Amino acid sequence: MTRVLIVEQGEGLWGAQRYLLRLAPLLEEHGVEQILAAPADSATAAAWRADGRRHEILPSPDGRSVRTDAGAISPLRAVREAGRTAQLSQRTAALARRVGADAIHANSHWSHLEGVGAGKLARLPVVLHLHEENEHDVIGRLRGMAVLAADAAIAVSGAVARSLGGKAAQRAIVIRNGIDADALRPEPAKPGVRHELTGGDLDAPVLLSLSRLDPRKGVDQLIRAVAALPEDLSRTRLAIAGAPSLVPEHGKLLRDLAAELLGDRAIFLGPRDDVPDLLRAADALVLASSLEGLPLSVLEAQSCGTPVVAYPTAGIPEVVTDGETGLLARADDPQDLARRLTELLHDADLRERLARQGRARVLAESTLKGQAEQQAALLERLVTRRTRRP
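RE: above sequence
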């Protein structure tokens, strides 16, 4: 049995955290025991414990940032965060030794440098997980340095790996996200869910958004795209499911925009735990993100047989081939997004073909079982290499 300490400092239970919960039982089948190191009040930790898995408390400082409110790098905050990183590296190393870990897996971005530092102190191999594209700023350069110092770095898409640039990009190992295609399979929509999304107008087309309400997720562009649909699609509804933004005022801006442009045709569902039912009740999943890695929502939609229309952000074109497994609109162009949505909603044969071929692609390339096999094999190689060192 290989024992891995997962360091997770994320604030919510989003795609980067949900995959941990889904993958855990399959990794156990491959002989990988995982212990979660996370703050006591972490949403991930609560879900992890609810599944009967071991959680060790690893406090995380509040308000972590190296930027001022205006977005500029603050030397004072950078020094403060360097001290916090050193301190958390020591705590993580001590925890790894105490639980008898064979490796450290740093899952969230804030934990990458700390994970590398802990690995050096505890003399354990360290794996970083990269869930979104790397931006070319000070933070991005630090992340690239962490990748070079780690024993391995998993990128969820080729685009995420390439975004590191230079030698760091060459070191990243692409293991794409996977999903449970048995649980997420095509089924008839539940009448109650369809009624909720349509507001009782059961024949109205429904477009679904599944993402946090953050500025980079482009929900405002979805609202504008739906408002730009032609007159014969004026009954189309937009259902927006997702956790509130880390920028609270953005949620209000979205609600105000939706009320102005769509009226009662937009519905904000908040966080939901019935994602498969929502997907089966929708006519399409729509994404307009400007920052991604490889969204689980795209894979979930394809697996459920729900067509996908999206911007070609990050790893999305790696799983959405335009006209075959989904439709791609020009990035940052709500008018073109409206054009592709119109094309989809006007053509039942196209919707059926995209649904069928999207599902087939998931079964061939994006299963959770395949992701678990690749990740378990990587961990085994790292731990075996360590034990063979003189």
